[in-house]
Write a sequence for this structure.
C-alpha cells in the first residue's frame, strides 16, 4: 500500500509538471548541443592555427628577395625577355663595337614602339635626349634607388618632377646608336647609392 501511494505520488508529480519537465529537458539538451558545437569549433580553430603556423614561414621564404625585401619591380616591357644580362665581373661581346666589355644593365627585347613602364613608384628625376641612347628617363624610388630607361623614342609621357606609380607608361622603345646591332630593346639600368647594381634580384619574374 505504501509503495502504491509512493508511485502514485510520483506519477502525479510527473503529470502535473509535465510541461515544466519537458521544457527543462529541452533546455538541458540545447545547452549540451551548443557546448559540443563550441568545443568542436574551438578545436578546429586550434588546428587551423597550427596549420598556419607551420606553413606561413615556408611561403615567406619562397618569395623572391631583393636587397630590400619590400621592393619588387614590375618588368619595364610587358614580354620582358632578357636579350643581354647584367655583367659586372665578366665580359660580353658588344655586337655594335665588336669589343668584349662589361654590361651593367639588363637589355629587354621589345618591338619598336612597345610601351615602357615604371618598374616601381617614384619621381621622375630627369628626362633627356642622348645622341647615342635616344631618350633617357631616370626615376628616383627613394632610398638612393634609381632606375634608368635608355633607347626610348621621342614619345615620352612624363616630365621631370612627375610622380609615377609602378606599371605607369612612361615611353616607348625605339632604335638607338650605342647598341644598334642588338636591334630594338630597352636598356635598363639600376643605381643604388650612385653605383650601378644588378637589377635582377628585384624582378620576381627573373629570379636568381
Ligand atoms: Zn644594353
Amino acid at each position: 500500500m505504501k509503495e502504491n501511494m509512493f508511485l502514485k505520488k510520483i506519477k502525479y508529480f510527473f503529470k502535473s509538471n509535465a510541461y515544466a519537465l519537458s521544457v527543462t529537458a529541452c533546455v538541458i539538451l540545447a545547452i549540451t548541443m551548443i557546448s559540443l558545437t563550441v568545443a568542436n569549433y574551438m578545436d578546429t580553430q586550434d588546428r587551423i592555427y597550427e596549420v598556419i603556423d607551420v606553413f606561413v614561414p615556408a611561403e615567406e621564404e619562397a618569395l623572391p628577395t631583393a636587397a630590400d625585401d619590400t621592393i619588387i619591380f614590375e618588368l619595364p616591357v610587358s614580354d620582358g625577355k632578357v636579350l643581354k644580362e647584367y655583367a659586372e665581373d665578366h665580359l660580353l661581346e658588344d655586337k655594335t663595337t665588336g669589343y668584349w666589355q662589361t654590361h651593367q644593365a639588363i637589355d629587354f627585347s621589345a618591338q619598336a614602339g612597345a610601351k615602357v613602364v615604371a618598374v616601381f613608384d617614384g619621381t621622375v628625376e630627369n628626362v633627356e635626349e642622348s645622341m647615342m641612347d635616344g631618350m633617357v628617363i631616370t626615376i628616383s624610388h627613394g632610398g638612393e634607388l634609381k632606375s634608368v630607361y635608355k633607347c626610348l623614342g621621342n614619345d615620352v609621357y612624363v616630365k621631370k618632377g612627375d610622380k609615377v606609380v609602378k606599371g605607369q607608361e612612361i615611353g616607348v622603345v625605339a632604335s638607338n646608336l650605342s647598341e644598334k646591332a642588338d636591334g630594338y630593346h630597352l636598356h635598363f639600368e639600376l643605381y643604388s647609392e650612385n653605383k650601378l647594381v644588378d637589377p635582377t634580384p628585384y624582378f620576381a619574374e627573373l629570379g636568381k
